[in-house]
Structure formats: C-alpha cells, structure tokens
Specification:
single chain; about 140 residues; alpha/beta; Rossmann fold; five-stranded parallel β-sheet; 5 helices; 5 strands; globular
Length: about 140
C-alpha cells in the first residue's frame, strides 16, 4: 500500500502523515501536483488531495491520478473499482466551496469530504485503506 497526500498546510500534512505512520501506512506528503502525478505513474493506492492548495488545478490532478495507471486505449470508466488501474482518491475542501467539491466528485474522486469531516474521520479513513492494502 502506497499513499500520498497533497496539502499546502505543513502542520496538517504532518498530522496526516503521523496518523498514517501510527497505522503502518506508508505516506508521503507533497506540495506540488507534479509530485503527485509522478508518484501516480509509479503506482499509488491512495491519493489525498486538499482542494485548497494554491497554484494548482485540483480537479485536473484528480483526473490525472485516476488515469495514471491506464494504458493507452483503455476504455475503463473513471472511478472504476479496479485499484490496479487507478488509485483511490480522497479529496477534501472547504464546505462553502460546494462547486469545487462537486467538481472533484465529477473528476473521479472516490470520496469527497468537507475539511471538518475529513479531519474528524482521518484515522478511520486511513485505517480502512491500510487494511485494504493488506489484502492486495
């Protein structure tokens, strides 16, 4: 199981990483879309994207992550359950940015949450994905 989180808030990124570490889930925290895309092409199981990261198009990053594992001509549907074809993408953002949350969903994010709910459910979310990784 390989996971990456794209966040701009260093303290929040540390919180995500330490929670993952406690669960035995290898997690890298990055600050650029390029780092996520590079890792996605190398093979990722889980991608966490903070929709408020400045200077990137988070919706485009989600699309690229979902397509990273596909071979040219693959007609798989974005958001399919084939974990080998694309990573699980969890996106979170401000509850007041309903259009952005909806756009993330439409781009193929598997789970889109307001930041407050993501924060509250972080240990359970990561535990669930860490457990899934043991069965792959």
């Amino acid at each position: 199981m390989v996971a990456i989180a794209l966040v701009s808030d260093l303290i929040f990124g540390t919180r995500i990483k330490s929670t993952a570490d406690e669960l035995g889930l290898p997690m890298s925290v990055v600050r650029t879309a390029e780092a996520v895309e590079s890792a996605a092409h190398a093979g990722l199981n889980v991608v966490i994207i903070d929709l408020s990261v400045e200077g990137i198009d988070p919706v485009d990053v989600i699309r690229r992550c979902k397509q990273a594992g596909r071979s040219p001509g693959d007609e798989s549907v974005v958001g399919s359950d084939d974990a080998a074809a694309n990573p699980m993408v969890i996106a979170f953002g401000s509850h007041v940015q309903k259009d952005l949350l909806h756009a993330a969903e439409q781009a193929g994010a598997d789970l889109v949450l307001p930041r407050s709910r993501f924060t509250a459910e972080l240990p359970q979310l990561l535990a669930r994905y860490a457990q899934m990784g043991q069965h792959r």
